[in-house]
Structures are given as C-alpha cells and as structure tokens.
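EI: anyone free to look at a 661-residue chain?
SC: sure, send it
EI:
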Amino acid sequence: MLLESIKLFNFRQYYQEQCIEFSQSSTRNVTVIHGENGAGKTALLNAFIWCLYGTLNLPNGKNIINEHAISTTSENSEVEGSVTLKFTSNGKKYTLIRKVTAKKSPKDIFYYDPEVVLEYREDGQSEIIKNPTVEIGRILPEDLRSYFFFDGERIDNLSKESGSEDIKRAIKNIMGLEILERAISHTESARKKFRSDLKNVGDSKTANLIEEMEKLDQQMIDFQDQEELQKENLRATNKQIKEVEDRLKQIEGAKQLQELRDQKINQLEEIRGVIKDVRKKLTLLISKNGYLAFSHLVAQKAEKFIRSNKSQKPITGIKRHFIESLVENRTCICGAELTEGSSHWHHINNLMSKISNDQVENKTFDFMGDLKIITEKKKNLFSEMKQLKAEELSNLQEEKKLNEEIEEISLQLAGKDSEEIAELENRRIQLIEGKSEIDRKIGGITSKIEEITKQNKEKKDEQSKVDKIEIKAKLTQKRMDTCEQLEKAMLKILSIREKQVRIQLQDKISSVYSQFLRKDYTLKLSASYELNVLNSIGNIVGMSQGERQITSLSFIGAIVDIAREQFKKENKQGFDEGGIYPLVMDSPFGALDSDHRERIAKGIHKLADQVIVIVSTSQWKGEVENQMHTLIGKEYKLSYNDPRTSEQQYEFTKVEEVKWS
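SC: here you go
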C-alpha cells in the first residue's frame, strides 16, 4: 500500500478543499508536512484513520464537519464534510471516500450516518467495491493502523510493559501467525461440526459420548474465557503497581527506598529462579536414579547369598579346558600318568566336577562388580541429593531474608509523614494482595482446564473403541480424525513458525536499533513479547521517554521492513504474504535530544518505501532538516488562521505546498 494523495473537505478545522500529494519517488521517498501546535497536525493524522476505518481519536469526535462551514450554511440546509484518500495496492489504484452530511435546523445540527465509497481501477477498468470495510481490512487491518499512522508523542507506549499485547498482535498479523491460528480455529470448528453430525448417525452409546464431550467443550470455553479475563486483570494490576512504584521513585523521601526495593525484588526474582532450577535438578535426579535408594537392599541380599554358599561355591581360577586337556593326555598336573581307578584319576575327576563353567564364572564376577557400582551410585545419589537440598535450603533462607527486607521497606514507606507516600504505599499493598488473589484464581482455573482436557481425552479414547458404527458414521469419524490430524500438524507448524519469527524479528530489531541509539545497549524481545533494553552485562535498564520512543520506532521499523522483504520474496508460503506499508508519523522527534534526532532523521527513510512526517518547526530546524533535506520528494505547510489576529474571523487551516527554488 502506497499513498498517492489525501483531500480534506470541511474536515474539522480544514475549511473547504485542502489537498496533499505524497512523494512516489524511490530515492526521495519522504513527504514533510510542517505545522505548529494547534495548526491541525493531529487532525490530519486522524483524517487518514477516519477515512480508512471511521474512527476519530479527537476531542468532540462526533463533530466531523468544519464549524465555519456549518455556521455559514442556511437553516434547513445540508452541509458535507469528507476525506478522500487515493492509494495503490498490489497493482490496483484505489479511491476511498468517507463523507458525512449534517442538516442545520434552527435549534440543532443533525448528523446523518457516514457514507463510504471504495472504487478501484485495474487495467483501465473501474469497479465499486460492495464491501469496502472487508477490502480495507485486507489491505491494512485496523488492528495494525496504530503502527503505520502513529503519534510520535505516544509511540513510546510500545516499549512499556503494557505494550506487550500490542506487540504480540502486530507480530501475529504481519508475520502470518494469525493466518495459522485462524486455520487451526476453523479446523477445530469443522471437527466439532462433524462430531455433532456423528451424534445423529451413530448408535446411542456414541451419541451419549459426543453429548458429554460437547458439554466438556463448553465448560472448556467458559473456563478459558474466565482465564483470559483474569489474565487481563493481572496485566492491569501489574500496570497499576508499576505506576505506583514509578511515582514513588519521583517523590523525594521515597525515591531511595523504592529504588532499594526494586533492587531487592530483582534479587528475589533471581533467587526464585535459582530455587526453581535446583528443584528441577532434584526432580530429574530422583526420576533418573531414585530406584537406587531402594535397590541396595536387594543387592546386599544377593551378595550375601553368593558369599555364604561356600560349600557349594565352585573352584575358581582354573579353567575347565585345562583339566580336560590333562585327562585327554593322560598326564596329571604333577606329571604322573593318569590311569583309570588311580588316586590321581579320582582327584582329577573330583576337581572337574567342582570347576565352574567359564560363562557362569564371568557372569558371577560381572554381577559382583555391578553390586559394587550400585552401592557407589547409591552413595553418589544421596550425596548429590544432600548437596541440592542444602543449596535449596540456603536459597530459601535468602528468599525469606529478602522478603523480610522488602516488607520492612514497605513498612517504612507506609509510615512516612508524607500523606502521598503513605497513600501510594498502602495502594501498592492492596494491589499486591489483589494480584495474589488473581494468581490464585488463575491457578484454580488452569487446574480445571487440565482436568477437562484429561476427561475429554478419555471420552475420545472411549469413542474410538465403539465398534457398532454405520457407514455414514464411519465417514464422519474419518473426517473428524482428519481434522484432528490437521490441527496437530498446524499446531506444530505454528510452534516452528513462532520460533523462526522471533529469531528473524530479533535480528531485524537489533539492526535497526543499533542505528538509532548512541548507547551500547541491545534490544531484546522477551518470550512474553516485551521490548527490553539490556546493557553490556545483560541487565534490563530503565529508559527515558526519548529512549522508549526510539525502542518503539525500532520495533515498528523492523516489522515494516520484514513485511516488505516477505512481500518481495519470489517463493512465498501462504503465511509469508507480507506487504508494502507507508509510515505516517506525527511528531516523531518530539521527545528526542539533538543527537538522537540526528540519528533518527538519518535513518528514518530506510524504514519504509514511503515515509510521511508531520512535524513542527522547532522539531524540524537543525539536525533533522540537515539530514533529511535531500530525501524530501514533497513538502507542505499547514497555515493556521487565528481569528483573534486575522481579518477572517473564524478558525481554519490551509494546506500550502512548499515550492523549491
């Protein structure tokens, strides 16, 4: 998707028709729109979003039509406001018009429902699309709009803990994971439908089983909904706790204590991680070698049995074949001749009967050696268990100590003379208690989900054993089995794809981030889709608003770049569709210092095939202008008419193109 132009007609403070054409150049791919505070920069950004999706994130959002246009309209007449957006996508040229009409009465203004018209041209043919919302959602899903039409002053939210869900959603949409998830969901729905059909064509036992499974499925859905609700509550509670702690760090008298608590909490998390690892090692050790704790009794009895049977113990150390050769040669070991009936003859035959079989002797030696090994392994098992338990106990004591120190800090904060500090700490305590209750509820729900999953599997196994199934039922069963196999295969593909996406995205984020930030930091995407900045020793660091803005911009740039690469791939899979997306940014340099402005300005044009920057003079002048002036393909100025200082006694914004000499 590349934008060609936008035309605003009586939209908010844009009176009459105002038009902007965007640069289509591959070398000068930046369009700059200058505007001071109050000139309509945010309204312009919202014009894109309103035209595409019908939503407006502005004060008095229902008032779309310019106030002066309404005031100059005669009573009982109608006035119109609209936004027209022209763009290209996959070789098609689109024209999207969203307009709203208002009728002016003596007492009020009545707004009609907005109208949307989407037309496309291809190979000289034009067509009006009957379902414009569906087509727009296919070209640029509404869930992704905040990544391509964003307010630079709010973009830093992505790098906050609360932004992880937004990041996760963006990754799924752009990287093709959502397609796989939808396919799994649709296949599951088909399987359930076939199962419902089976209830009608199978025997009574099958019908009863399926009815029970359907009830379990509904219970599963109910518990999953409850689980998601509690997880959302947990995210909201964590966010509130973070806000309270951030506020405490800003207040003199609480700052040092809160920073100390943060340090103690980080240590506590590390200790809990160690405890978890120790317990994991202990579990693995017991599951692998735990039998040794009980087998040594049997080993002792076996050894005692072998050693106690001395009278029956075979002679060892002499090989049977040696004695057999003496008998064959008729010569005793002492050199005397062996004759039948002689004392030497009887002695040799007696010796022959007591000599052990070579194989038995070898096995006996091996067995005795194994008994020693078992005894030694048992000693090592108890030694390792003792060592791990000692390590666990030591860390548990450290955990207890840290918990006590954190609790002491909490008491100190709650007992502060400052009313605000005390209130904040008491609020934090309440939130922590609420978080524990939510965790408990989630644990209970998870346990119930696991139990239902187990019951469902048992019912499936039972159903698969039912023999009396008619021909139709067999076909339906076969379809169900096929759906289940497809689900398993797609879940495996999804798991592999998620790992690939994470690696691919991490590489791209790191590459973009290193260009923008001057510090020797690295940007990591965690397993829970949080953007974490790590210092040289791997610790998470706190960020300023400007650094968070750069972090979020790096993520968006990486997403856009990967989507572009996937779109241009010759051999694409179904979930590798990708796309070409523009970046429309309002105030992207606002929270940045001079050096970071220069870095962003230098590399921002590389993030997308088309970049549109809406910027104030103070943000533009200096480093940004110096870096970007050779990249500009189109340039405009938003001229605001202030009725207090102008002959024209009404507020409006006019778009003027900046002509280069």
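EI: The chain is about 55% helix and 15% strand.
SC: 👍
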